[in-house]
Design brief:
The protein is mainly alpha-helical and about 90 residues long. About 50% of the residues lie in helices and about 0% in strands.
Amino acid sequence: MKIAAIERKAAVDGAPSVQRPSAAPAPFDWTSERQDYLKRHWKAGFAADRIAEELGTTRNVVMARVWRLGLPRRGQDSAGQDSAPQAQ
């Protein structure tokens, strides 16, 4: 039985209504100012969790935006090459 039908039946029977779980939180609003802040601080080497704290979101949200913006991963230069020296 679908939830809506259960709620209607409960209302007819006089039973207390069923509480639905709250909806998922709204997606983080990436304004141009927040994206600029992320880009500047990411390139300056700030940790994702620190950037997230300053923006009022989670590290996962920051990391997803880093990936979507195509920002270089840590330990790589802008060409995508490993910037750590190679052992010989």
